[in-house]
Design goal:
single chain, alpha+beta, Peptidoglycan synthesis regulatory factor (PBP3), Domain 2, seven-stranded mixed sheet, 32% strand
Length: 370
C-alpha cells in the first residue's frame, strides 16, 4: 500500500486552566538530589544534583513491578520460593508455602513495599535474584538509565546498587505508560488473595502523597540506612502529568508538594489538532472514506515546547473495500522537534461496503461456459 507522509505543524488550542504555583529555590528543598520532569515530553522542569549517583532504597521496586507486569502469566497461582521471602525490612506478609500470583505481588511491592513480594516475583520470573538483577539492568539500558545499576529487586542496601534522580524520573515515565502499573500505584488500599490456602487480605499504601497532594497518582516510597528517605511521586491535573523524584530528602513530603507545584507552574494543557483526510476507496459503495483521529490528544507543554510540536501523517493513497467504521487506516505521529512522543491511530469515520464489479459481456460468456 502506497504511503503518503506529510509533515505539518500542529495547531494548538491552549485551555484556560491555570495553576497557582511558586518557584522553588534550592535552599527550600531538603533533598540532596531532586528533579521534576514533564511526563508527556520528558522535559526537565527543575533539577538539583539530578545526575549524582545514590542508593534509592525501595523506589527500586518501580523497576521490579514494571518487569513483573510485563512478564505475563499475571494471574497464574504458584507457590512462593521459601528462601526468597526470608528477607529483612518491609513485607506484604508472605509465608513459606503460600500460594500467590504475580499480579498480587505487584500490589504487595507497590503498596506496603514488600521486600518479600519483590523477591518472590524475581525468582518466579528469572529463577534467582541475581538473574533478575541482570534483567533489570538490561531494561534500564533500553530506557536510557545510563547512571543506574541494580543488584537486587527490593532496594535493600548493597554495594553497586545505585541510581540518579534523573534516571528514576525516566524509569517512572516509562512505568506510567503501563496502565496496570499506573492503576496499582495510585491505590490507597487494595484487596489481594494469597496464603495457604489463599484468602483475601487488605494491603495499605505507604505513600502519603496520595492524600497530601491533589491529583497525586503515585508512585513509590523508599528508605534504608544508606539511602535515607527516597520518594518518587507523580500528579495529574487538567491533562498535564508531572513526575518528581527526591533522593536523601529529610522533608520529602513537603519537598514533593513544592516540586510538583513547580512542575505545574511550568506547563499547561495543550490540545493537539490532528487533521482529517479523505482517502480513495477501490471496489467500494463509495469512492472515498473519511479518515479521522482515533482519539483526542492533550499534552502538558511549556511555552517553548508548544512551538516545536509537529504532526507527521502516514496515510494511504487508497484503500480497498470492505471498510468498517473504526478500522485503523493510518497513523499520526506526534513529535517534539525530532523527539517522537506518541502514535495516534487514524480511523475510518464510516463504513464502506464492498461492491462486486459488473462483468463484461465476454466475461459473462466465459463464466457461463466454465
Amino acid at each position: 500500500m502506497k504511503i503518503l507522509t506529510a509533515i505539518l505543524a500542529a495547531v494548538m488550542a491552549v485551555s484556560s486552566l491555570t495553576f497557582t504555583a511558586h518557584a522553588v529555590p534550592d535552599e527550600n528543598i531538603s533533598a540532596e538530589c531532586a528533579i521534576v520532569i514533564n511526563a508527556d515530553t520528558g522535559g526537565v522542569l527543575y533539577e538539583k544534583n539530578a545526575y549524582r549517583q545514590r542508593a534509592m532504597a525501595s523506589t527500586t521496586k518501580i523497576m521490579t513491578a514494571l518487569i513483573t507486569l510485563e512478564s505475563g502469566d499475571l494471574d497464574r497461582p504458584f507457590t512462593v520460593d521459601g528462601m526468597a521471602i526470608k528477607v529483612e525490612g518491609t513485607s506484604m506478609g508472605l509465608r513459606e508455602g503460600d500460594t500467590v500470583t504475580r499480579r498480587a505481588l505487584c500490589y504487595g511491592m507497590l503498596l506496603p513495599s514488600g521486600n518479600d513480594a519483590a523477591n518472590a516475583a524475581a525468582v518466579s520470573i528469572s529463577g534467582s535474584l541475581s538473574a533478575f538483577a541482570e534483567l533489570m539492568n538490561k531494561r534500564a539500558a533500553r530506557i536510557g538509565m545510563n547512571d543506574t545499576h541494580f543488584v537486587n529487586p527490593s532496594g535493600l542496601d548493597a554495594e553497586g546498587h545505585y541510581t540518579t534522580a534523573r534516571d528514576m524520573a525516566l524509569l517512572t515515565r516509562e512505568a506510567l505508560k503501563n496502565e496496570e502499573f499506573r492503576s496499582i500505584c495510585k491505590m490507597r488500599t487494595a484487596q489481594v488473595e494469597f496464603g495457604a490456602p489463599p484468602q483475601k487480605r487488605t494491603l495499605y499504601n505507604s505513600n502519603k502523597m496520595l492524600r497530601l497532594y491533589d491529583g497525586c497518582i503515585g508512585v513509590k516510597t523508599g528508605f534504608t540506612d544508606n539511602a535515607r528517605r527516597c520518594l518518587v511521586s507523580a500528579a495529574e491535573r487538567g491533562g498535564c502529568t508531572v513526575i518528581a523524584v527526591t533522593l536523601n530528602a529529610p522533608d520529602d513530603w513537603n519537598d514533593h508538594k513544592k516540586l510538583l507545584d513547580r512542575g505545574f507552574s511550568e506547563i499547561k494543557p495543550v490540545d493537539v489538532r490532528i487533521n482529517s483526510f479523505a482517502a480513495e476507496v477501490v471496489g467500494g459503495s463509495s469512492d472515498t472514506v473519511t479518515i479521522v483521529p482515533g482519539r483526542a490528544v492533550t499534552l502538558g507543554l511549556t511555552d517553548e515546547e508548544s512551538r516545536t510540536v509537529s504532526v507527521r501523517y502516514n496515510t494511504p493513497g487508497f484503500v480497498y473495500a470492505e471498510i468498517e467504521k473504526g478500522d485503523t487506516l493510518g497513523y499520526a505521529d506526534i513529535y517534539l522537534g525530532e523527539l517522537f512522543l506518541e502514535k495516534i491511530p487514524l480511523v475510518a469515520a464510516e463504513s464502506v461496503a464492498r461492491v462486486k464489479p459488473e462483468l463484461t459481456l465476454w466475461k459473462r460468456i466465459t463464466h457461463f461456459f466454465s
